[in-house]
Design brief:
single chain; mainly alpha; Rossmann fold; Serine Threonine Protein Phosphatase 5, Tetratricopeptide repeat; DNA Cyclobutane Dipyrimidine Photolyase, subunit A, domain 3; five-stranded parallel beta sheet; two-stranded antiparallel sheet; 22 helices; globular; binds flavin-adenine dinucleotide; binds ligand DLZ; binds iron/sulfur cluster
């Protein structure tokens, strides 16, 4: 009997588990553009267009490879607009009783498949280097989960940048060389830009019509939407940006949104590129002497370390993870995150480039938008919804542990051993934002004091009971306690004033 093989919009690899199980002659692949997936958050229009266009290209590649594909386009009259509805419709149409899926990257979708009145098998997702079982057996019995130790195991497992049993260059991590602020006059090529073909252009018109009010600019659209284009983007990154990736990884420039970052996460997260092939491409150019070790190692760590580690945590922690709120933060997300006015130049730039590109690099996400939300005590569920909506690479398995865990400390310290917070001086050191800001980064209180400065100390004081015993925070509490009492009072009053302004929806 015909079986249905489900391929979701972020599972676009010919090697994906469900396809491995499938019979090219007897089974039918089901793919569907549905409102349910396009609206569970108000995705950036570029993200919807990217996913739909990549799905259409992938369906074509599958048909070319001899598969039968039942594809539902968004505007098709019979579209039931949910994944479950489309599986049931195809099951009835084809007389099928069985579905083979690859386990989705979000608990919501896993539960929906479990609830279907059909026989559904969810195969483990094979697009990661570490299986979920492997991750959980590594995590078992450990008091603390630290990415660095997981990463070392992954280096040994993959053999990437290994010299026998030892790490290449004698050290596992070269981050000390990776903290250079960028200078605006450096020449940078920028990420690969691809012209939309007919398939992508048709999707852009559809998205323009169907999602006119979503936050974000749809055009210009220069992303790859198929495997060949994604490989081109990988080659472009490796040749033009990777050599400097390490050194400038944490830098931010207001007129250069990407710097030496890869902009490969959309392709990795939708299956157009595989993590191991990307790392092997990076290792190859390092071995050819074209790329320094700090860049190759730094990049590979992000993929086999952070990416795999966070995915393991998302699934290990279960469906309740996105609801965690360890610090009991409950303030509303400021309208500035949706493009309304702000006097903070760093926030204005991070949000503007997010609106234009559906992209901000890691330090902008962590140390500007994330840092501010955490210091200001924004409800982590609202922060999570925002990150899941606005970024082209946002799928819950990776977005949630980054937001709830790493950025907002809402999981109470599973991902991060201490909160990622800073005053304005970190942003000033790593960027050119502060010179053009309404606020003075050197001031801690007063009308024009940088809000990050007062909120930083305000946060530490508010959460003193939780963090005072943390050895990694002893130094900052010591610094705070040594300040003059009047200074501390002025700073806390300035923090109160910023929070009151946020509560009154005033421009900050
Ligand atoms: P580069 O900086 O060039 O890094 C190379 C690759 O390493 C990335 O493509 C990505 O696959 C991987 N990587 C790097 N850091 C991480 C990380 N922390 N977690 C997982 N993978 C990582 N990444 C997502 O893929 N999807 C998300 O929804 C997402 N949400 C985030 C939310 C917050 C609050 C924060 C702080 C980070 C988030 N990240 C997310 C991680 C990181 O910011 C992006 O992976 C990165 O910016 C993607 O751009 P790039 O390809 O240019 O990355
Ligand atoms: C993100 C997304 C969007 C916008 N649309 C679809 C869609 O119409 N059909 C589909 O199969 N997948 C889509 N996706 C990706 C899913 O939301 C994703 O598979 C789940 O969130 C699990 O990661
Ligand atoms: Fe951001 Fe403060 Fe610098 Fe302004 S002064 S750009 S608010 S860090």
């Amino acid at each position: 009997m015909t079986r249905l093989i489900l391929i979701l919009g972020d599972q676009l690899s010919q090697d994906v588990a469900a396809l491995r199980e499938a019979d090219r002659d007897g089974d039918v692949i089901v793919m569907a553009e549905v409102r349910g997936e396009a609206t569970y958050v108000a995705h950036h229009p570029k993200k919807i267009a990217f996913v739909f266009a990549a799905m259409r290209h992938f369906a074509k590649d599958l048909r070319d490879a001899g598969w039968t594909v039942a594809y539902t386009a968004y505007d098709e009259a019979e579209n039931s607009h949910t994944i479950s509805g489309e599986l049931l419709r195809r099951a009835e149409e084809l007389g099928a009783r069985e579905v083979i899926a690859t386990r989705p990257g979000e608990w919501r979708v896993i539960a929906a498949l479990d609830d279907l009145p059909l026989k559904v098998t969810q195969q483990p997702d094979n697009r990661f280097i570490c299986s979920q079982e492997g991750f959980e057996s590594w995590a078992k019995d450990r008091k603390e989960l630290r990415m660095e130790y997981f990463y070392r195991q992954m280096r040994r497992k993959t053999g990437l940048l290994m010299d026998g049993d030892a790490p290449e260059g004698g050290k596992w991590n070269f981050d000390k060389q990776n903290r250079k602020p960028a200078s605006p006059d450096l020449f940078r090529k920028g990420p690969a830009e691809l012209e939309p073909d007919d398939i992508t252009s048709a999707v852009l018109d559809l998205v323009e019509q169907e999602f006119p009010d979503n936050f974000g600019r749809l055009r210009p659209f220069a992303l790859a939407t198929n495997r060949a284009g994604a490989v081109q983007a990988l080659d472009h990154f490796v040749e033009h940006a990777l050599p400097e990736f390490g050194a400038y990884q944490d830098a931010m420039l207001q007129d250069d949104p990407v710097l030496y970052h890869a902009l490969l996460s959309p392709y990795l997260n939708t299956g157009l590129l595989a993590p191991l092939e990307v790392c092997e491409a990076v290792e190859r150019v390092y071995k050819d002497g074209k790329v320094p070790l700090n860049s190759a190692e730094g990049f590979i760590r992000q993929i086999i370390g952070w990416r795999e580690f966070l995915r393991g945590i998302y699934f290990m922690e279960g469906p309740g993870y996105t609801g965690r709120n360890a610090l009991k933060h409950d303030r509303k997300l400021p309208a500035a995150y949706w493009g309304d006015e702000t006097r903070m130049n760093c926030l204005a730039h991070a949000v503007a480039q997010t609106r234009d590109l559906a992209y901000a690099h890691h330090i902008q996400r962590l140390m500007v938008t994330g840092n501010f939300a955490l210091l200001a005590g924004i409800d982590p569920a609202e922060v999570h919804d925002w990150y899941l909506s606005v970024y082209i690479d946002a799928f819950e398995w990776v977005e949630a542990p980054n937001t709830i865990g790493m950025s907002q400390f809402a999981d109470g310290g599973i991902v991060a051993s201490k909160p990622y917070i800073s005053s304005g001086s970190y942003i000033d050191r790593m960027s050119d934002y502060c010179g053009n800001c309404h606020y003075a980064v050197t001031e801690r209180h007063g009308e024009t004091a940088c809000p990050f400065n007062s909120l930083y100390w305000h946060f530490l004081e508010r959460h003193r009971d939780r963090f005072k015993e943390n050895p990694r925070m002893a130094l900052v509490y010591g610094n705070w306690d040594r300040m003059q009492r009047e200074d501390r009072e002025d700073i806390l009053a300035a923090g109160d004033a910023v929070l009151a302004a946020l509560d009154a929806a005033e421009v900050v």
